[in-house]
Amino acid sequence: MKRIGILFIIAGVICIGVFGNQIIGHEQSQKQSLIQAEERIKQGANEQGEAGGEDTEKSIEAFDADQDEAFATLEIPKLGKTLPIVEGTDPDSLQKGVGHLSNSVFPGQGEQILLSGHRDTVFRDFGELEIGDTFVVQMPYGEYTYEIRETEIVPEDDTSVIGEMGEEVLVVTTCYPFHFVGSAPDRFVAYAYPVSE
């Protein structure tokens, strides 16, 4: 009986070690991505300054990012977080930060911008957000603020939230329920619209 107890303790310690290692790995990847994103933003700001702001519209329309590249930041003022935005929504990209769906556009391009992230890493405490809270996206060509106007919960395989909307909308998704153990069955979707300056 003692041997079984010892085996359970050893198994528990191993699980905690593996889980802890994964968390540390995610945090290190996100820190590196945040540095990369801030460098890209700074570079873009310098280029805009040198051009005298004349080519801002061209910069917006021509902007592109490489797969797995950290190119922007997502600030969530209510949660006190600034997160890197990485091109792509595959597992490698989501380990580095908030993923940008490659089929969607970028801020300022007048259509759906889709961002996705894990509820237990970048979007921890996401359940605290409410209608009226804001997201701030810092791009290499400018800053964009969006206000959450609606939210919904959809099944994990529901792709109806992806597509043209006829206007600029920041759609941010994560797994739901927020404190679910294992693979969550649903997705929480927040729709945020540009705030007029």
From TrEMBL:
Question: One GO molecular function term?
Answer: hydrolase activity
**Where, by residue number, is the active site?**
H118, C175
Tagged with keyword Hydrolase: yes
InterPro entries for this protein: ArgE/DapE_CS (IPR001261), Sortase (IPR005754), Sortase_D (IPR053525), Sortase_D_1 (IPR041999), Sortase_dom-sf (IPR023365)
Q: Which domain of life is it from?
A: Bacteria
Mind listing the UniProt keywords for this protein, alphabetically? Hydrolase
Report the SUPFAM superfamilies cross-referenced here.
Sortase
Keyword Flavoprotein in annotation? no
Name it.
Sortase family protein
